[in-house]
Amino acid sequence: MKIKDYISGDTFLWALAIILIVFSFLPVYSASANLAYLGKGTGNTTSYLIKHFTHVVIGLVILYSVHKIPYRYFKGLSVLAIPVVILLLVYTAAQGTVMGGASASRWVKVPVIGINFQTSTLAFVVLMVYVAKYLASIKERRVTFKESLLPLWLPVGAVLMLVVPFNLSTAVLIFSMVLLTCFVGGYPKKYLMAIVGIGALTMILFVLTAKAFPGVLPNRVDTWASRITTFSGEGDSDSTYQVERAKTAIANGYIFGVGPGKSPTKHVLPQSSSDFIFAIVLEEFGLIGGLLILSLYLFFLFRLVVISTKADSVFGKLLVIGVGFPIVFQALMNMCVAVNLIPVTGQTLPLISSGGTSILMTCMALGIVLSVSAQRDKQKEMEQEVAPEDMNPLDVLSEAL
């Protein structure tokens, strides 16, 4: 039996995902040294490797299970899941977690298993499926702004308002992907411009309120300002520490890198196995390794475009864009942070960074994309079963191409 007999969907996408996952064990095992010294004082990274392996296995199980579900079922599931994820975000916000003196309510502890789960990542996937479902339902008719406020922008606004105070970069990514999906889905451009204006005005009011009344709203406004100041080169030595260490790692890597596991910077770079793992990749594998990883993500984007173009329905096309494109955009954000092209965001490198929630939700999103691709493959197989004499010569030529 061949592997292809057990899996469905785009083979190239499967291969890219597996390559990135397998590669992830090298930088995660190496970069976890910082966590090992801080957490256990021994420097033994084996437990972190086992933890990463466990996350990967669970993620692959999720990916395989989801890709076997016909993607049309995700329409109804998204409608049922939207209120659930909003309630989860409310519960998460009420946890009152603090990081570095700033509110960062992002995680909830899952009962029984005792692991932390970042609810905004689940909300992201569910919301994008819901947006794709709504846009597909109005594709054949004209919709007014007023008509779309309740079914579309109310859930989007609710999710964003619950994510922004604690995770600005994720909120920006969600908003950007919603706008992109709406644009591709044919939502009127004048309404999108109005939404952008409303979003910008709301954000300005939130920041001004947070600065004027610091204790009223939970927020990380001071952290955002600090990161922007650091990016501009005006921050103090403490705020620029991560960025400077990442630059050191990149400089050490030069063209071919210092070799797998030989990074000296991993011991002093905070978040070296998650947010700044690309800096460690560049140090250990050099510019060549970094360009190879970048190329894999760009090819990943190309396959998403192909799958979206060949999708057998409007919902399938928008689904691939909504849940697939964020994976690549998040990867590009992480890389840009590592090389100091944009301020620090806290976004991980999908399928490579350590972090349970990121791996699980990325695999779920991939499973949804592969479900769309699998449906197209089934349709193609049915078309090929038609006898050649019953087919138009032009159809035969088209299938061959």
Unreliably modeled segments:
99-103, 396-401
Radius of gyration: 22 Å
Mean pLDDT: 85
* Discrete helix count: 14
The number of domains: 1
SS strand fraction: under 5%
* Secondary-structure class: mainly alpha
Please give the share of residues in helix.
55-70%
Spatially, the strands of the biggest sheet line up as 1-2
Explain what the structure shows:
Mean pLDDT is 85; it is low at 99-103 and 396-401. The chain has one domain. The two termini are 28 Å apart. The protein has a two-stranded antiparallel ribbon. A two-stranded antiparallel ribbon has the order 3-4. The protein has 401 residues and is an all-alpha fold. The protein contains 14 helices and four strands. Strand 1 (98-99) and strand 2 form a beta hairpin.
Which labels suit this protein?
4 strands, 67% helix, globular, disordered C terminus, single chain
Short description:
The protein is an all-alpha fold and 401 residues long.
Topology at a glance:
Blueprint: H1 11-31, H2 33-39, H3 46-67, H4 73-93, E1 98-99, E2 102-103, E3 107-109, E4 116-118, H5 119-137, H6 145-163, H7 168-184, H8 189-212, H9 221-231, H10 241-253, H11 277-310, H12 314-338, H13 356-384, H14 393-400
Antiparallel strand pairs: 1-2, 3-4
Helix pairs in contact: 1-3, 1-11, 3-13, 4-5, 4-6, 5-6, 5-7, 5-12, 5-13, 6-7, 7-12, 10-11, 11-12, 11-13, 12-13
